[in-house]
Amino acid sequence: ERLMQIEKDYDRLLWAWKGWHDECGNKIRPVYLPYIDLLNKNAKENGYQDLAEYWIEDYEMGNVTEFESIIDQLLKDIMPLYEQLHAYVRGRLCSQYENRFDCDGPIPAHILGNMWAQTWHDRLDDVIPYPDAPLINITKVLI
After folding, report:
1. Where are the beta strands (DSSP E) in 13-136?
2. How far is CA 99 from CA 51, 91, 104, 126, in A?
3. Distance CA 50, CA 44 (A)
4. What predicted TM-score, i.e. pTM, was given to this entire model?
5. What are the residue boundaries of the structural domains of the chain, listed by start?
6. C-alpha to C-alpha distance for 118 and 107, rounded to whole angstroms
7. Predicted confidence pLDDT, tens digits, the chain (143 residues)
8. 32 among annotated binding-site residues
9. Are residues 36 and 50 in contact, defined by beta-carbon separation less than 8 angstroms?
């Protein structure tokens, strides 16, 4: 994981990402699917429709349909911002990794800073628009 956070070399990142996913993904698949079936069975035996309904209960937002509707609306609301942010990050990374991936398509997962491409903060130094400006902390505004 640390390599994915600090490494910048495209080929080395691809080697690590592909190696990890090939090795772990292939080994876990035969165990993972029965595990999900077992979790669903357990949820049903405890009065839930399925595992999703069990997980959603923690949010105290009503039934699965209501929860999914709220999440769908939130996704629609933030999608324009996400698309612009994604395009900006893709453009900056495309400049850094010239001719290594389609600059109009998805960002390759292995260059985003972790094995699952779910957090991009480790690439902030590569994409920040004004690197000399102080970072803004909005935590107080959000609380």
Report:
1. none
2. 43, 12, 12, 17
3. 6
4. 0.81
5. 2-142
6. 12
7. 899 999 999 999 999 999 999 999 888 989 999 999 999 999 999 999 999 999 998 888 878 888 999 999 999 999 999 999 999 999 999 999 999 999 999 999 999 999 999 989 999 999 999 999 998 899 989 99
8. no
9. no
